[in-house]
């Protein structure tokens, strides 16, 4: 298992930080994703709307989560998400924490393969753009919980 | 450089209303100034009685002008117009010869810290904007109400100073929308009135009260009539009008479903005597709309409004007026300073917005959709409306249940439009004519209820 610096997944499921990006105030996405994760048996720390990069990083350093889920729908998610993961990855303690991103990430509808590739190159384990449905995400989280995803 | 005369927003709407025209307005904002000007010009030329909008981007809303400037420098397109990052002269050139007494332009932003935005719009010669200390804080930020309220008070003061120059600044409350969906109408109506009272306390003399179309058109009509009665009562000495927002929740994805919901909103606005409508486009469920999509929406709404009449008299009273009155009076009883009263009301849970994650929201009130698509209280927390609402009980919230409520309107209108397509195909293939209602709008439950 290479996530969360060797921390074992407890019987309470994964410890998940769920967060928006600094410019995005939408929260229905967060409310629904929290319920989805809890129904799969995981512990969710929902950081809410408009999370400043520094707050997000300090919460991750404090909580040392097994998974970070970034959700954004306002169209700035691609750029805010890239900036955010660079800050997270600059901390050695968080260098290997699995992170995924999803939502409506650009202002012109679902992005191109290149923008998804940029997000994964920056360190996101998966990109779930609008229209993907939640099943792919649920199975990703399931694999992570049994130690198969990275 | 002199500041252009961009006319009074409230006057323009009042004149249109008197001549029986519904004013229609888009949400529209792009980062490039030349494109922004083109969008305003296109709005002005639309076959409708329209006012212009400059919608601001999310960085500017958050006061993050560094990231707005960085995006401009890098040529990254934003989700709105960064009015603070652009030089005032640039914004004046966007408006020059476009905005005027016959085409007022409003700034729509969504900021709990609007002073730099208000300063920028004043420098550009504008004086109409939107928001409120509660409605631009809870759905739009994590900023404490204790900060948003004084920020909004100072912004109103800045705008009110314009009155000495002969201009009549206008502020629209976003209180009738809040989270966009699943908020029972009584609370939306109360918040709209309370925020307009706050604007009035801070020297604003021309306001608009908003109400966002919800899930059932009879309930919406009742809510709008209650809003009108309460505005008449509480705002006797200021210029006010009512603005309807086309549905602000999860929007239909089919073009016909999207247009059907917009037309329904236009009819609702006229029926209930509202003066202005903010439209939504066919792109709503997907991405920021193009100018062409926005102009088409303005024209669709104007056309739907034309064939419609304002109803005289009252709608069936299910208690929305009583509920809103109880909420307004409970807040006013907390003290003469409305800003302080609003903060106390949220602390005590007298105001509590369902499903709002903001740290200052109590989060004990919950809502649900009943079998007729009406929004009802599931639990009222500490809302002072027990006498009006009666007993409630609570059920467990699940992802599937919440998603079903969130998508109720989308499904209703998309299913109606898909069914219509299916009938078109089968009618065509069988070559038969039957007595089926030719008006597709009548197939949606919401439309049927309003007939
Ligand atoms: C409700 C709403 C609002 C409310 C939000 C209240 C709140 N605090 O939450 C209000 C009215 C306040 C609002 C404001 C704004 N909004 Co808005 N809003 C909507 C609307 C109508 C519905 C969103 C919603 O509630 N969906 C329900 C939830 C459950 O679904 P969801 O958000 O899509 O999330 C699901 C999936 O996307 C996916 N998902 C999301 N994230 C992730 C992450 C992972 C890892 C995974 C697996 C899946 C996933 O799963 C989620 C749960 O099912 C949408 C349009 C629409 N869809 O109809 C616009 C929309 C999202 N808004 C938009 C915008 C731009 C804004 C504003 C910037 C204003 C503006 N310029 O128009 C501001 C935000 C200010 C800011 N600082 O960012 C745009 C975004 C455009 C884009 N991406 O290209 C949209 C698409 C409308 C449009 N077409 O212009 N909005």
From TrEMBL, chain A:
GO molecular function: cobalamin binding; metal ion binding
Pfam families assigned: B12-binding
SUPFAM superfamilies in the record: Cobalamin (vitamin B12)-binding domain (SSF52242)
Provenance organism: Kribbella soli
Domain B12-binding positions: 13-150
Protein name in UniProt: Methylaspartate mutase
TrEMBL record, chain B:
GO molecular function, one term: methylaspartate mutase activity
Family annotation (InterPro entries): Cbl-dep_enz_cat, Glu_mut_E
UniProt cross-references to Pfam families, sorted A to Z: Met_asp_mut_E
Keyword presence, Lipoprotein: no
Region (Disordered): 421-451
Stretches of the chain forming a coiled coil according to its record: none
Keywords per UniProt: Cobalamin, Cobalt, Isomerase
GO biological process: anaerobic L-glutamate catabolic process
Record protein name field: Methylaspartate mutase
Lineage, highest ranks first: Bacteria, Bacillati, Actinomycetota, Actinomycetes, Propionibacteriales
């Amino acid at each position: 298992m290479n996530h969360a610096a060797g921390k074992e997944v407890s019987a309470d499921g994964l410890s998940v930080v769920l967060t928006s990006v600094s410019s995005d105030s939408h929260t229905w996405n967060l409310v629904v994703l929290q319920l989805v994760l809890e129904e799969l048996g995981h512990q969710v720390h929902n950081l809410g709307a408009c999370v400043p990069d520094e707050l997000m990083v300090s919460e991750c350093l404090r909580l040392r989560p097994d998974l970070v889920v970034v959700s954004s729908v306002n169209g700035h998610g691609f750029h805010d998400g890239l900036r955010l993961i660079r800050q997270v990855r600059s901390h050695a303690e968080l260098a290997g924490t699995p992170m995924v991103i999803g939502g409506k990430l650009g202002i012109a509808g679902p992005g191109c393969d290149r923008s998804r590739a940029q997000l994964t190159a920056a360190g996101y384990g998966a990109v779930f753009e609008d229209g993907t449905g939640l099943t792919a995400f649920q199975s990703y989280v399931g694999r992570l919980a049994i130690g198969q995803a990275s | 450089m002199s500041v252009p005369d961009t006319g009074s927003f409230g006057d323009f709407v009042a004149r249109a209303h008197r001549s029986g025209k519904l004013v229609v307005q888009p949400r529209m904002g792009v980062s490039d100034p030349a494109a922004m000007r083109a969008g305003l010009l296109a709005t002005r030329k639309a076959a409708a009685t329209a006012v212009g909008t400059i919608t601001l981007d999310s960085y500017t809303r958050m006061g993050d002008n560094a990231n707005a400037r960085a995006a401009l420098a890098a040529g990254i397109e934003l989700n709105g117009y960064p009015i603070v990052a652009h030089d005032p002269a640039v914004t004046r050139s966007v408006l020059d010869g476009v905005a005027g007494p016959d085409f007022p332009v409003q700034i729509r932003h969504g900021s709990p810290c609007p002073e730099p935005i208000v300063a920028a719009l004043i420098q550009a010669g504008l004086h109409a904007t939107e928001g409120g200390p509660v409605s631009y804080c809870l759905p739009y930020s994590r900023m404490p109400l204790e900060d948003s309220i004084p920020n909004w008070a100072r912004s109103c003061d800045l705008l009110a100073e314009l009155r000495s120059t002969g201009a009549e600044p206008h502020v629209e409350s976003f209180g009738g929308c809040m989270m966009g969906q699943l908020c029972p109408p009584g609370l939306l109506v109360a918040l709209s009135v309370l925020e307009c009272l706050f604007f009035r306390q801070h020297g604003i003399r021309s306001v608009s009260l908003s109400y966002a179309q919800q899930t059932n058109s009879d309930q919406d009509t009742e809510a709008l009539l209650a809003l009108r009665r309460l505005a008449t009562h509480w705002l006797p000495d200021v210029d006010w009008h009512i603005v309807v927002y086309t549905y602000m929740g999860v929007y239909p994805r089919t073009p016909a479903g999207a247009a059907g919901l917009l037309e329904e909103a236009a009819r609702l606005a006229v029926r209930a005597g509202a003066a202005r409508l903010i439209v939504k486009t066919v792109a709503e469920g997907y991405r920021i709309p193009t100018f062409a999509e926005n102009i088409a929406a303005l024209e669709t709404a104007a056309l739907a409004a034309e064939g419609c009449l304002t109803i005289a008299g009252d709608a069936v009273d299910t208690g929305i007026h009583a509920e809103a009155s109880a909420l307004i009076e409970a807040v006013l009883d907390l003290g003469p300073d409305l800003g302080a009263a609003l903060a106390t009301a949220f602390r005590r849970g007298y105001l509590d917005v369902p499903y709002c994650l903001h740290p200052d929201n109590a989060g004990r009130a919950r809502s649900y959709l009943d079998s007729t698509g009406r929004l009802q209280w599931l639990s009222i927390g500490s809302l002072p409306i027990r006498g009006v609402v009666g007993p409630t009980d609570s059920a467990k919230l699940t992802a599937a249940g919440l998603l079903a409520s969130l998508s109720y309107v989308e499904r209703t209108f998309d299913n109606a439009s898909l069914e219509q397509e299916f009938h078109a195909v089968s009618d065509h293939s069988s070559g038969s004519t039957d007595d089926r209602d030719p008006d597709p709008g009548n197939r949606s439950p919401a439309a049927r209820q309003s007939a």
